[in-house]
Design a protein that fits this description.
By secondary structure, the protein is mainly beta. It has one domain. It contains no helices and seven strands. It has strands at residues 4-8, 14-23, 30-34, 42-47, 55-57, 63-65, 71-72. It has a four-stranded antiparallel beta sheet, with no helix packed on it. Strand 5 (55-57) and strand 6 (63-65) form a beta hairpin. The termini are far apart. The protein binds zinc ion. Zinc ion binds next to loops.
Length: 82
């Protein structure tokens, strides 16, 4: 299991980024962020392009970074198998 990296969230809380668990983004990967070190509660995503956690996910599963142009398509688009 990979090491988690501590991150300060938008409201000053401590969040944990898993740098090995990433979703493909348009410019850089979005890394999965957890609120606890046991990875039980998912907080959201960390933008690998501008290195911030300032992004929003809509009901379709799309993630758009508030800080740069990076975005992740809805989950359905990534469902195709290679
Ligand atoms: Zn960004």
């Amino acid at each position: 299991m990979s090491a988690l990296e501590e991150l300060e969230g938008p409201t000053g809380q401590t969040l944990y980024v898993d740098r090995e668990e990433a979703e493909r983004g348009s410019k850089a990967p979005f890394f999965v962020v957890y609120v606890d070190t046991d990875r039980e509660r998912r907080w959201g995503y960390f933008c690998g392009n501008c290195e911030t956690a300032e992004n929003a996910m809509d009901s379709m599963g799309r993630v758009q970074c508030n800080n740069c142009e990076n975005f992740k398509r809805a989950d359905e688009w990534d469902a195709a198998h290679e």
